[in-house]
């Protein structure tokens, strides 16, 4: 046997890669997101213990599948962001009827403000 069983354990660096090669539907997005592609390729190309060519081929297939899923997730995220930006900056035409427009003095503040014209009640507070 050209590999150790701990080499492909589920918690090992290449466990996720092996699962991607053989049981790709069991992977979650979180497993794919935490997989580091360059270090996985280096680990397959320069292993600590010798591995069979067939196993290295399967592991490289798993790396390619993980890379493909990462690209797919990036595409969907960018497409979602683009559609959100487009909807945020779309021009909206508002056609108000003439009678629904407020008068100028109701919306615009006067240039000078007279505090003496303000009628306020005197409020007293009782301390208890």
TrEMBL record:
UniProt entry keywords in alphabetical sequence: Nucleus
Biological process per Gene Ontology, one example term: replication-born double-strand break repair via sister chromatid exchange
Source organism of the structure: Acorus gramineus (Dwarf sweet flag)
Name of the protein in question: Sister chromatid cohesion 1 protein 3
Domain called Rad21/Rec8-like protein N-terminal: residue spans: 1-99
GO cellular component, as recorded: cohesin complex; nucleus
InterPro entries: Rad21/Rec8-like, Rad21_Rec8_N
Compartment(s) where it occurs, according to its Swiss-Prot or TrEMBL record: Nucleus
Superkingdom field: Eukaryota
Pfam families noted in UniProt: Rad21_Rec8_N
GO molecular function: chromatin binding
First-listed, main subcellular location of the protein, grouped into a coarse class: nucleus
């Amino acid at each position: 046997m050209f590999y150790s069983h701990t080499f492909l354990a589920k918690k090992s660096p290449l466990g996720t890669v092996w699962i991607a090669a053989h049981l790709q539907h069991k992977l979650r997005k979180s497993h794919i997101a935490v997989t580091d592609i360059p270090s996985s390729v280096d680990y397959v190309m320069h292993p600590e213990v010798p591995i069979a060519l067939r196993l290295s081929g399967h592991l490289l297939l798993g790396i390619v599948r993980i890379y493909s899923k990462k690209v797919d997730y990036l595409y969907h995220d960018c497409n979602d962001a683009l559609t959100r930006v487009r909807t945020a900056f779309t021009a909206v035409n508002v056609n108000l009827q003439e009678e629904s427009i407020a008068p100028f003095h109701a919306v615009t503040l006067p240039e000078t403000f007279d505090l003496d014209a303000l009628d306020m009640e005197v409020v007293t507070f009782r301390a208890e």
